[in-house]
Design goal:
496 residues, 15% strand, single chain, eleven-stranded mixed beta sheet, two-stranded antiparallel sheet
Length: 496
């Protein structure tokens, strides 16, 4: 059994210094630095109105997003109207929970009714004003307020060329505006890191939630495939596409996933399993817990940046120092094999989902998409069938590892975020990673900060058993304060 302490919204309400400051009109309070739990406690007790919180984020967007470029479209009027309704509902005693009044942004890949969706493409998606993605509907049902659509690679693809000739300029890294923010959920990672949104939703097909989280020093969760509905999303690879939350801290991801998930009859890939219920508990220690750790000295990780290696080794030491038993292990297959299996699956499924639309105006798409189409035409039905069969085997092989331990610790990206002026650095950041295995197998995976190399965030990754996001979140909430340390929180360069 876990020895735990449970966090509660009420623990922050009432006599909190922040609550007092807000009630007395302290304008020096930076509302954009609140966590979901902190903001929710103040909203629930009446010290903070949802409109105040949304206005604070809109002001931050006005101040920094010309440089950060995290949003493609800011839904200013819609967000303020929704926040005003939240305030009325709460005043009437209809408080819905931790997400009620919390602003969120979403990758511009999810249809959002009257709020425009572009996929960061020049293609005409047609009139979709009657279609709202399930993940948006679910978050809004919990009371969250959509403040806009965020930067992405075209069709949520993550190759470097896809970013260089698109309608919306590539989002910058909040820690260094001359650097890449990861992809393809570029805006969500940059926006949470640069505090233009409290919460963001990205889409992960081969690491596209975790890569921007790693680049931007924030936390990102890829849920188990089938946990969250893809209804209303522009499809990249239907057997791997997975919406996931990005937040400054791990606890925020738990609140978000509880609202986002659930079976959806409109999406046959969703699974009828017990809904994820977030219980904000932190283990008191890790005594008796077994943690698998890959051998980062193996040839698979030969290119790991020394600072990244040191960050991961520090995480392993923290686990040991707090009672965890480290179980040396490795992924069942080489990283290269996961990539090899993934390519034909992605090629064929992207083709089937998007070919007709792209061919309606091929000159409108970016060069990267055109290059991708040429690779698709080289993939055979046999290639696809063999890859799908091997992917299912890989799922079983990885799940078997969790008979021996609870979570698996491994690298995320091999490098810190690259400079825009050096395309090879961006390519290395995107391609030399350990993100693909969990996407091929469908397992949940959590990308976390692992400290800093100068001003640039380091990262690591944990993979958990199928449909056990809870164990990842518990470990993440335990490790987060140990990794971040005590004292003032680091502030990204974009915030001054």
């Amino acid at each position: 059994m876990w020895g735990v302490r449970r966090l509660a919204l009420a623990a922050l309400a009432g006599s909190s210094a922040l609550g007092v400051a807000l009630r007395t009109g302290d304008n020096a309070t930076d509302l954009t630095l609140l966590s979901i739990r902190e903001a929710a406690a103040l909203i629930q007790e009446g010290s903070l109105r949802a409109t105040q919180l949304v206005e604070a984020y809109l002001a931050r967007i006005d101040t920094v997003d010309e440089r950060l470029r995290s949003f493609i479209y800011v839904a200013r009027d819609e967000a303020l109207a929704a926040a005003a309704q939240v305030d009325k509902d709460i005043a009437a005693g209809q408080y819905r929970g931790a997400l009620h009044g919390i602003p969120f942004g979403i990758k511009d890949l999810y249809f959002s009714g009257a709020i425009p969706t572009t996929g960061n493409s020049r293609l005409d998606w047609g009139n979709r004003t009657d279609q709202v993605a399930a993940v948006i509907t679910n978050l809004e049902a919990a009371g969250a307020v959509l403040i806009g659509k965020m930067d992405t690679g075209e069709f949520a693809s993550g190759t470097v060329k896809l970013y260089m000739d698109l309608p919306h300029d590539l989002a910058a890294n909040p820690w260094d505006l001359d650097r890449f923010a990861g992809g393809s959920s570029t805006g969500p990672g940059a926006g949470v890191g640069g505090r233009t949104t409290l919460l963001a939703v990205g889409g992960d097909t081969g690491g596209s939630v975790r890569l921007p989280s790693a680049a931007c020093g924030v936390q990102g969760l890829k849920p188990t495939f089938g946990r969250v509905s893809n209804y209303g999303a522009i499809s990249n690879t239907w057997s791997r596409d997975c919406a996931g939350p990005i937040g400054w801290n791990v606890e925020d991801l738990g609140y978000a996933l509880e609202a986002m998930g659930g079976y959806d009859v409109r999406d046959s890939t969703t699974v009828k399993t017990a809904p994820f219920k977030f219980d904000p508990i932190i283990p008191q220690d890790l005594s008796g817990r077994r943690v698998g750790v890959v051998n980062i000295s193996s040839t698979d990780y030969a290119g790991l940046q020394p600072a990244m290696r040191a960050g991961i080794e520090n995480v392993i030491s923290l686990l040991q120092d707090n009672g965890a038993e480290i179980v040396p292990t490795n992924l069942p297959s080489k990283l290269a094999e996961y990539n090899t299996v993934g390519s034909p699956i992605s090629n064929v499924e992207f083709h089937v989902s998007n070919w007709d639309l792209i061919m309606s105006d091929p000159a409108a798409v970016g060069q990267g998409t055109r290059d991708r189409l040429s690779r698709i035409l080289e993939t055979t039905a046999v290639d696809y069938g063999e890859a799908r069969k091997r992917a299912l085997e890989m799922t079983s092989e990885l799940e078997e590892l969790f008979r021996d331990f609870e979570v698996l610790v491994l690298p995320g990206t091999f490098y810190t975020a690259g400079l825009f002026s050096k395309p090879k650095e961006i390519s290395d950041f995107m391609l030399k990673t350990a993100m693909v295995p969990a996407s091929i197998t469908g397992h949940p995976a959590l990308s976390m900060r692992a400290g800093f190399d100068g001003e640039l965030p380091l990262n690591f990754q944990m993979i958990g058993p199928l449909f056990d996001e809870a164990v990842l979140i518990r470990y993440g909430m335990f490790l987060e304060p140990l990794i971040d340390g005590v004292g003032p929180r680091r502030v990204p360069k974009v915030l001054g």
